[in-house]
Write a structure and sequence with these properties.
Elements (H helix, E strand, L loop, with lengths): L9 H4 L2 H24 L16 H31 L4 H35 L3 H39 L13
Helix pairs in contact: 2-3, 3-4, 4-5
């Protein structure tokens, strides 16, 4: 018996509000990146903030980075919900893929934060820049570890589903395979 979707019609279950929210946050992130790029072209933006080793562009980039990170963290569960409503397949596999998507977005948010905040925080730390990297390493390892574990646990079910879809077979015995 082939694996079937447990959802009646996945297209009807796609929540319009979730799609709108995901689209809105993706467009907001893109808009912030474009605005940040335009701000970096302003005259004098590369000057140092008086009394600090930080440039104005580093401060603006840090603010934009925090906004993007906030949007990504807020977007992660909505993307997982969207994945659950769009994908067909066994519930375990769909849930695993949704969780993996959510964890990847959170991990990307940590990487964006590390990269985007470095110009504003790095100069303040002086010779202790390694502490900055160590803090972000400690923040990035948990989602990466959970992501790796989730991928490992879902490897067999995903491989089985892939084999069934590509080869057109099922792991359950067919009528012609059973002995009497």
């Amino acid at each position: 018996m082939p694996m079937t979707d447990i959802r009646p019609d996945h297209h009807e279950s796609v929540d319009h509000e979730t799609v709108r929210r995901v689209g809105k946050f993706l467009l907001a992130c893109l808009g912030l990146v474009v605005l940040s790029s335009l701000v970096s072209l302003l005259p004098g933006i590369d000057r140092l903030v008086p009394g600090t080793p930080i440039s104005f562009v580093a401060v603006v980039s840090a603010v934009v980075t925090l906004a993007i990170v906030g949007l990504l963290v807020y977007l992660a569960p909505a993307l997982a919900k969207l994945v659950r409503s769009v994908l067909e397949g066994p519930e375990q596999v769909v849930d695993d893929i949704a969780a993996i998507v959510q964890l990847v977005v959170v991990f990307v948010a940590v990487l964006v934060a590390h990269q985007g905040l470095a110009p504003a925080i790095g100069p303040l730390l002086g010779g202790l820049g390694w502490v900055y990297d160590l803090v972000f390493l400690a923040i990035a390892l948990p989602p990466l570890g959970i992501l790796a574990a989730r991928m490992y646990v879902s490897l067999d079910p995903m491989a089985e589903l892939l084999a069934n879809r590509v080869a057109g077979t099922s792991s359950e015995p067919r009528d012609d395979d059973q002995s009497t």
